[in-house]
Amino acid sequence: MYPSTAQGENLFVALARDGGTHAVKYLYDNGRDDLELINGAFLVAAQNGSTGAIDFLLETGSISSEVFDEAFVAAGGSVLRAKTVSFLYEKKRATSEAINKVFASTHCFAVRKLLYENEVIPTEAIIAAFQRATLYGIGHFFRLTKDKLDTVRLLCELGCIPAGVIGKAYSDAATRHLTQIMELLRDHPKLSREVRESAFANAASAGYLDLLRTMYDVNLITPDALLTAFLTTRISETKAIVETLAAFMCKKEHVPKAIRAEAFVAAAKKGLKTVLEILNEAEDGDWPLGLLKRALAVATVKNVKNYIRKLVCNQIFSGRAVFGCGQAIERLDVDMLVS
């Protein structure tokens, strides 16, 4: 007839927890009307979504404001208890403090939306909810859910969230490859150029090629930021990254030649022949001999050095065939290369 109870657990409380409303009413009518017992039963009923028992216990008139708030907050902490929170909210007994606490801490977007649409939520609670949904300060153990994305989508449009909070959320998302959050925040008016470019460089260093392509926009990422990302990216594990950055630099209408020139020298030093080819194609081989001299001076990889020597030959001999020219150029006096 009754559910089994753990040792020391009161049967009245266990029945309320498991939704045994008729049994709870029977016990209450037969003397189980202690205030502490009723309030304890109400709390566990709310935690477990037993709305029938909740309703009956409220009708007894014995539930204190403090316990109601505690039950409301407890139900709000579970994504499975949205209906229970709505049920309790409709009773109009939750204090503003409890409502704000649930808004800030709930995992359930439906609950947050309900409160947002019907209450005046203070800025502090809105910021806390946004931070909770965007990984802010949570560390590595974070699972992105539809509820979190819906929360970010709702709250990021509000003007009360500080630029620093928006920026940190964007940076954290870039560091942890949370592309959906980044897409929601990408065009936010409070996202500074410095934050965008720092996150872009971090994504490059982390090897997130898909994220890099999503983040790049000629109107949002400056040529200098492209070069910084290129110079600071470790090549050993991210060859595709530097090749992609080089391709971005080849958008000549947005990126000045000086940026490609610095990248060319850096690519020579790092032994990136493919990157040299990408950059050279954008310039149609038209590099100053002084720049080629710089690149040749820092190159250490044989095929890279030979490629640069070939470009020097092309410059000197105006496109003549350059078979065997590398050795001759190697012996040329440096002054002859730049004269």
UniProtKB/TrEMBL annotation:
This is Ankyrin repeat protein. It comes from Phytophthora fragariae.
